[in-house]
């Protein structure tokens, strides 16, 4: 699968050869920082002073690289496809090589950053449990009522929430049995066939 | 087992054969157990009770209910109940009648009294769904299995409560099941002690 770069993106990336070899390394670093922490105009300004290039060129270069890296990481395009995609830009072999290296070195991290943007449900974080036996209450003395008290920690919109739940021994065994079936389902032929064919 | 002076007064009235002949006594006992265990709205409309003064009836009904609840709360045995009612001048036959009725309803009474009070949300069941994530608008070729687990919960005050739902990866579900199994094993060991 090849990347389709619009005229605007090509124009943004077009400033790379003009900036020179050393500057491309710096722009790559800035692009990754922008992906990790968001836009940083100050860093662009200081890079512009250091490299003696105008701030506009630096910013366009960074934006172009960010787009190039996120699109190719999102689609997980292969090494060959990446090379073919940037060929249309008419850069030198050396520049192409350093862009490819930039892509390959950081693809994993960029994919994990993009993964965080996906819509997500509250997700499991951990579970703590405790065994209790209720012995008496205001309305009934001399009881023996076993219970498993659990604290379920969930991740929800980047916050952690915890919920205290309780269950009886019979239900606990039922929960285990049901969830083991859920785990077992993934090893069934049906699921394995889907997984094999989707890759 | 001890009753309050008010309840003792009620039982003294109940033990008086002139105020409470046999049939109305039996009817009042039935009504007291019924209003506690089956139907809180149940009234004292038994035809056998129609000749009794309503104020007396109310007093006696309260006394019977207090005695039933106190006996259930303390898990009192027959001899403790008998001693208590003998103090209120009840004859042997009436005491026996009360004890028979009490024995019949003891288990239901224990369940009722045990269910009173606060406790954390109680898990009653679980449902799950397995899905294979393929891509989203931010990321293609994600390819990993994901479970959606819903715990059905019930609250002790019988008010409805939303179920607890969360997603988890296979590793997280294994972690969860492992911990639940640890709990079950500890529970088993604890019962053998």
TrEMBL record, chain A:
It comes from the Eukaryota. Pfam families: COMM_domain. InterPro entries: COMM (IPR017920), Commd2 (IPR037354). This is COMM domain containing 2. It comes from Geospiza parvula. The lineage of its organism: Eukaryota, Metazoa, Chordata, Craniata, Vertebrata. The gene is COMMD2.
UniProtKB/TrEMBL annotation, chain B:
PROSITE patterns: COMM (PS51269). InterPro entries: COMM, COMMD3. GO terms for biological process: sodium ion transport. Belongs to the COMM domain-containing protein 3 family. PANTHER family: COMM DOMAIN-CONTAINING PROTEIN 3. This is COMM domain-containing protein 3. It comes from Geospiza parvula.
């Amino acid at each position: 699968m090849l990347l389709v770069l619009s005229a605007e993106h090509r124009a943004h990336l077009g400033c790379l050869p003009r900036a020179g070899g050393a500057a491309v390394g710096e722009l790559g670093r800035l692009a990754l920082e922008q992906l990790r922490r968001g836009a940083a105009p100050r860093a662009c300004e200081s890079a512009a002073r250091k490299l003696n290039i105008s701030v506009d060129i630096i910013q366009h270069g960074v934006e172009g690289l960010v787009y190039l890296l996120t699109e190719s990481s999102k689609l997980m395009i292969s090494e060959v496809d990446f090379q073919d995609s940037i060929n249309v830009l008419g850069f030198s072999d050396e520049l192409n090589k350093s862009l490819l290296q930039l892509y390959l070195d950081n693809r994993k991290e960029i994919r994990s950053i993009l993964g965080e943007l996906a819509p997500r449900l509250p997700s499991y974080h951990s579970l703590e449990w405790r065994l209790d036996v209720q012995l008496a209450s205001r309305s009934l003395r001399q009881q023996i009522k076993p219970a498993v008290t659990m604290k379920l920690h969930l991740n929800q919109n980047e916050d952690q929430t915890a919920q205290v739940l309780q269950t009886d021994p019979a239900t606990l065994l039922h929960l285990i049995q049901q969830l083991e079936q859920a785990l077992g389902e993934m090893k069934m032929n049906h699921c394995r066939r889907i997984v094999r064919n989707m890759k | 087992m001890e009753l309050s002076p008010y309840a003792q007064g009620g039982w003294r009235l109940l033990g008086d054969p002139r105020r409470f002949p046999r049939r109305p006594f039996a009817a009042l006992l039935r009504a007291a157990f019924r209003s506690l265990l089956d139907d809180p709205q149940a009234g004292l409309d038994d035809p056998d009770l129609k000749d009794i003064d309503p104020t007396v009836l109310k007093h006696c009904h309260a006394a019977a209910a207090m005695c039933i609840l106190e006996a259930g709360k303390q898990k009192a045995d027959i001899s403790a109940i008998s001693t208590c009612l003998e103090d209120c001048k009840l004859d042997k036959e009436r005491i026996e009648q009360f004890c028979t009725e009490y024995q019949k309803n003891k288990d239901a009474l224990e369940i009722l009294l045990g269910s009173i009070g606060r406790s954390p949300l109680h898990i009653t069941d679980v449902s799950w769904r397995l899905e294979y994530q393929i891509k989203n608008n931010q990321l293609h070729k994600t390819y990993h299995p994901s479970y959606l687990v819903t715990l059905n919960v019930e609250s002790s005050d019988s008010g409805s409560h939303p179920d607890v739902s969360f997603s988890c990866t296979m590793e997280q579900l294994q972690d969860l099941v492992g911990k639940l199994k640890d709990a079950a094993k500890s529970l088993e060991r604890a019962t053998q002690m």
